[in-house]
Write a structure and sequence with these properties.
- The complex is a heterodimer of chains A (491) and B (114).
- Chain A has 491 residues and is mainly α.
- Chain A has helices spanning 5-22, 25-49, 75-98, 105-123, 127-146, 153-182, 187-195, 202-215, 224-231, 234-258, 263-286, 290-311, 313-344, 356-359, 364-375, 381-395, 399-424, 430-439, 442-460, 462-477, 479-486, and strands at residues 56-59, 70-73.
- Chain A is built from 21 helices and two strands.
- Chain B is mainly alpha-helical and 114 residues long.
- Chain B is 66% helix and 0% strand.
- Chain B has helices spanning 3-23, 28-49, 70-101.
- The chains are: A mainly alpha (491), B mainly alpha (114).
- The A-B interface holds A 66-67, 128, 132, 135, 138-139, 142, 146, 151-152, 154-159, 161-162, 165-166, 168-169, 172-173, 176-177, 179-184, 227, 231, 287 and B 23, 28, 31, 35, 38-39, 42, 45-46, 49-50, 52, 54-58, 71-72, 75, 78-79, 82, 85-86, 89-90, 93-94, 96-97, 100-101, 106, 109, 111-112, 114.
Chain lengths: 491, 114
């Protein structure tokens, strides 16, 4: 069905970005919030429009594919666009409430640029366009890391820039080899040729996968992630950790579907996912900083998502989508709440948190709920996600893999409990407690608390979330229909 | 196979090889050059990808003589612009580090260990 929704989902953050440059910084923040909320509303509209399996498309410039560049929204894309709008809204609301980082035109523009790039990644149906939006995301998100105002910011930014740029260059090389082989980069065209018996060259596939694994911070390519995500200001960390890494997993899923089932490579992806999950879990148990613990737990949960994608099928993709939703909401809540401690309370290390739960008003309950969701304790969204991942493993008949991944998922209870125990046990040092109590106001905590409650609500009202994830998986697996839409047939 | 067809893979191999060697150096400036060389090598790969035998030109109608692929040329234009932007971004970040830490050596940046 032709629709302008995909176009507006990209234009809204773009317009907000331009507006943010024109307005005074204090007003520009409202423009950024409006842009993020518009993205959320457009994503929700797309979920409603695609709920019966229709696919929305928009041909840029009116050129019909395969010559023009198309944008296609199926329910998988719609879910991820909604998630982008939601997380960006929460982060922008935090910037408004907490006044950290200080209002700046460029920071608002970077927030909107990142949302623009992510929305583009989720909606495009062309491999080269995918690469372009990948670069837009890298360039726009660099200031998000650089705004730390911390002496370590230049170092973290340098690692982030160099490694993610090398990742996207690798992705470009894979794109070129795909083009040299097929003479087309339209997802629909590629999918139909693969279905007709053509084969994607292994080199191209490997380069594309490596580029996307850098983005999703999978283990051999994870080095930049804990530094960048823990040094960045908390509003940025929420977007980087809650959203940006998901774009890599989305790319792996979409390309896997376009290029057909990756049977020999699925085992490699499963191994990468399991090792990533285990490494992230152990590193989160060992680290001393609050935000670093959260960053390592992102690595661990991305490993679970990759393992679910490797198992594939309807159960695997449903599980991956569920865990993406759960993790995005949970991690946003945790980073925004941690922002209150780090940026307002001046507390950086886990040992310094001791006993602060009892002194700071309105902090312990949302933090406890969000940590329960991170650990995967019912009735939270995180529980639904982790349960679905393990079910997918059993459905795929991979017993050893399921045990391995289950052990990694159980580490989540360990590192979440570590943070929670530090929060509620013991007595806080009087000077630190007084400082935290006076500095951490309610307005700083609102955004994170709302996301924590959302993680709980999504777990309790699990039915609609599960149905949405299943619909996304069903639509994603119907590659023939996706290809027909992307090629301009069967509209 | 013409002489030109031989030189292309060799030229690409040399470029990619030099880029990897430079990227593995400790000096940040050499890493910057390596990144630029790598991006340029990929850009050259885009431009030459049209000439590979399996690439069918995406234009309709009978090609007269050797078909030129306009798509590869528009890809490479986009990619060159992106390369300029990303190289500038990396150079800026590197110089920011250099100004604050008084060194461009990447192995001296050790504040984020662990």
């Amino acid at each position: 069905m032709p629709s302008t929704l995909p176009l507006w989902a990209i234009l809204a953050p773009f317009l907000a970005m331009l507006l943010g440059f024109e307005l005074r910084p204090s007003h520009g923040r409202y423009a950024a919030l409006a842009g993020a909320l518009a993205g959320l509303a457009l994503g929700a509209a797309m979920i409603v429009e695609t709920r019966d399996g229709t696919r929305l498309f928009y041909d840029l410039g009116g050129y019909a594919p395969p010559f023009g560049i198309g944008m296609v929204a199926d329910s998988l894309s719609a879910v991820l666009v909604t998630l982008s709008g939601l997380v960006t809204s929460a982060a922008t609301a935090y910037v408004l409430g907490a006044r950290r980082p200080r209002p700046e035109r460029r920071y608002n523009a970077a927030l909107m640029g990142t949302l623009l790039g992510l929305t583009g990644i989720f909606l495009t149906s062309d491999l080269f366009n995918f690469y372009v939006f990948l670069e837009v995301t890298v360039v726009a998100s660099t200031p998000l890391v650089a705004y730390a105002g911390d002496e370590r910011a230049p170092e973290a930014t340098l690692k982030y820039v160099l490694l993610t740029l090398l990742g996207s260059t690798t992705f470009l090389a894979g794109t070129v080899l795909t083009y040299a082989h097929f003479g087309t980069l339209n997802f629909g065209d590629l999918a139909e040729r693969i279905a007709a018996g053509a084969r994607e060259p292994a080199t191209a596939r490997g380069l594309l996968a490596a580029g996307l694994l850098v983005k999703s911070a999978a283990v051999p390519f994870h080095m930049w992630q804990p530094d960048a995500h823990s040094t960045a200001p908390s509003a940025s960390s929420a977007i980087l950790s809650g959203l940006l890494v998901k774009s890599g997993a989305y790319g792996i899923l979409r390309l896997d579907l376009v290029f057909g089932a990756l049977h020999p490579e699925a085992q490699v992806l499963l191994a990468v996912g399991a090792i990533t999950a285990l490494f992230g879990g152990f590193a989160a148990l060992a680290t001393v900083e609050i935000k670093r613990l959260l960053a390592y737990s992102t690595i661990s949960q991305m490993g679970l998502i990759l393992a679910a994608l490797a198992w594939g099928g309807r159960a695997g993709i449903t599980a991956a989508v569920l865990l993406m939703i759960a993790h995005a909401v949970t991690k946003t809540a945790l980073f925004l709440l941690a922002g209150a401690l780090v940026e307002h309370g001046g507390v950086h290390e886990i040992a310094e948190v001791r006993g602060l739960g009892g002194t700071v008003r309105g902090f312990t309950v949302p933090a406890g709920v969000a940590l329960a969701s991170l650990a995967g304790i019912p009735p939270t969204a995180g529980f639904l996600g982790k349960l679905a991942v393990l079910r997918a493993g059993i459905d795929a008949g991979s017993v050893g893999g399921t045990i391995f991944v289950g052990a990694a998922a159980a580490l989540g209870i360990g590192y979440s409990a570590r943070l929670f125990a530090a929060l509620v046990w013991g007595n806080a040092e009087p000077a630190r407690a007084a400082r935290a109590r006076s500095r951490i106001r309610l307005r700083v905590l609102i955004s994170g608390s709302v996301m924590a409650l959302l993680a709980l609500a999504l777990g309790i009202l699990g039915g609609p979330v599960l149905v949405t994830a299943q619909r996304a998986a069903t639509d994603a697996l119907d590659v023939g229909a996706y290809a027909a839409t992307a090629l301009g047939r069967s509209r | 196979m013409t002489a030109l067809a031989w030189t292309r893979p060799i030229a690409l191999g040399v470029l990619f090889g030099c880029a990897v060697v430079l990227l593995l150096r400790r000096d940040g400036f050499r890493v910057l050059l390596g990144f630029y060389l790598l991006s340029s090598a990929v850009n050259l790969l885009i431009l030459w990808s049209e000439a590979w035998p399996s690439a069918a030109p995406p234009i309709l109608g009978e090609p007269g003589g050797t078909p030129a692929d306009p798509l590869a040329q528009s890809f490479v234009l986009t990619a060159i612009v992106i390369t300029l932007g990303t190289t500038a971004l990396f150079a800026g970040t590197l110089l920011w580090n250099g100004r604050i830490r008084r060194t461009l050596r990447l192995d001296r940046l050790t504040r984020l260990r662990g």
